[in-house]
Amino acid sequence: MGVEIAALMGFFGLTSAFALVATILAAWMAWRIVEKTGLPGWAGLGAILLTLTGVGSIVPLVLLWVFAFMRWPRDEAAGATPGYGAAPAGGPPRPVPPRALAPPAAALADRRGWKLTGSLPGVGVALTIDGSAPAYVLTGAPAALPTELSVPDPSVGRPHARLLIAAGRLGLEDLGTAGGTFIDGARLLPEHGPRDISAARAIRLGTVDLALSRA
């Protein structure tokens, strides 16, 4: 409220200053008109000044009237209630459509496990990595531990490679076997260290092709 009063006072002050300047200019021009037209002295000057003063008073009043009754953005905000839009003239408030929920700050981690599937002569291979351990060993020997995954083929080393799980991602590390380890056709060497295969589609251990998918 105080800010609005201060703004209004400033407006009136500015208007008064303009009115004073306009009055001085009007008096000077009116005197020039009296001289050129030969009107009867001060009587003619007074008539001209009264006319100009009346016009000068009407114009600010008209402007004040326009500003006082025009529609301001704050009027729209004041006419709205929580959950509703601005009320139309003579009618009930319009409901505002619900706002969409903001997207989460980060994507939720995929809690699913991983699966390697393939086929060997006369037998299928289906290995599930459920994430209960941080690392698993891929080996051609029969599995002796819960963290060993067996791929019974002569081309698969004993052990052959290591699977690593961290933060919902899957990594693969070659352990230096002669048969070799491949990720989507690219050779993985021991010196490469663990490589992220979360987005890979297939790996090959020796001559065994395994498809990678989510369990």
Explained architecture:
The protein has helices at residues 2-37, 41-69, 73-78; strands spanning 114-120, 123-129, 135-139, 148-150, 161-166, 169-174, 181-183, 186-188, 195-196, 202-205, 208-214. The longest helix is centred in the N-terminal third of the chain and has 36 residues, at 2-37. It has a six-stranded antiparallel beta sheet with strand order 2-1-11-10-7-8, with no helix packed on it. Strands 4-3-5-6-9 form a five-stranded mixed beta sheet, with no helix packed on it. The protein is α+β, with helices and mostly antiparallel strands. The chain starts with a helix and ends with a strand. It contains three helices and eleven strands; from the N terminus they run αααβββββββββββ. Helix content is 33%, strand content 25%. A hairpin with a 2-residue loop joins strand 1 and strand 2. It has two domains: 2-78; 114-214, Sandwich (Tumour Suppressor Smad4).
